[in-house]
Amino acid sequence: MALAHLPFVLLLVSSVAAFAAGDHGLTHIHLYVHETYTGANATAAAVLQSPLGANSSFGSMGVVDDEIRVGPDRSSQLVGRYQGVFFGTSVQLGAGYLSSITLVFTAGEYNGSTLSVQGPLLGFTGTIERAVVGGTGKFRLARGYMLFKMISKPTPETDVNEINLFVLMHPAGKY
Ligand SMILES: *[C@@H]1O[C@H](CO)[C@@H](O)[C@H](O)[C@H]1NC(C)=O
Ligand SMILES: *[C@@H]1O[C@H](CO)[C@@H](O)[C@H](O)[C@H]1NC(C)=O
Ligand SMILES: *[C@@H]1O[C@H](CO)[C@@H](O)[C@H](O)[C@H]1NC(C)=O
């Protein structure tokens, strides 16, 4: 009876050991999201207003297709797009959104891969933390978290946001 469990226990022990060996630890990705609110090159748009009126965000919807660059400078290398939707999900006053974002890499080390970030946006100040729930390509089966912080508004139409992602790569993701 007890022996029947042995292979399972061995499997667990060996996968924990492989993990602890550090081949697939946390990967830190540090990049910048550049957003433009209005004009010919806008990367963000409000799509739907709340049915509860202009003072509510509940049921509102927005969409972004921001640039991901290696630095805070708009002339720094473009490595992907920050594409997502925001839904107002709080009936109470103040911000309360569900965001679903795909980081689509088009250059650099992660070219061709994507990361899916999901979670709440309970305000627009300070550092916003959301979960990395998966990915494709080099990020298959990945998970982790993303810290997002607005760092500057170079013009009234634009802002620059620093993102730090800590991603647990999964050993089985290479298959
Ligand atoms: C939009 O982007 C193009 C290409 O980078 C640029 O030539 C143009 O000046 C920009 N337009 C505005 C309104 O920023
Ligand atoms: C929004 O709130 C402001 C301030 O409380 C109020 O004056 C205004 O009438 C409200 N607007 C709507 C559309 O409810
Ligand atoms: C990114 O990958 C695509 C598809 O493999 C390739 O066509 C493209 O040249 C790559 N871009 C860069 C900047 O490496």
UniProtKB/TrEMBL annotation:
Gene3D superfamilies: Allene oxide cyclase-like (2.40.480.10). One of its GO terms (biological process) is phenylpropanoid biosynthetic process. Pfam families: Dirigent. Residues 1-18 form the signal peptide. Coiled coil: none annotated. It is found in: Secreted, Extracellular space, Apoplast. Its main location: secreted. InterPro entries: Allene_oxi_cyc_Dirigent, Dirigent. GO terms for cellular component: apoplast. It comes from the Eukaryota. Keywords: Apoplast, Secreted, Signal. Dirigent proteins impart stereoselectivity on the phenoxy radical-coupling reaction, yielding optically active lignans from two molecules of coniferyl alcohol in the biosynthesis of lignans, flavonolignans, and alkaloids and thus plays a central role in plant secondary metabolism. Belongs to the plant dirigent protein family. Homodimer. This is Dirigent protein. The lineage of its organism: Eukaryota, Viridiplantae, Streptophyta, Embryophyta, Tracheophyta.
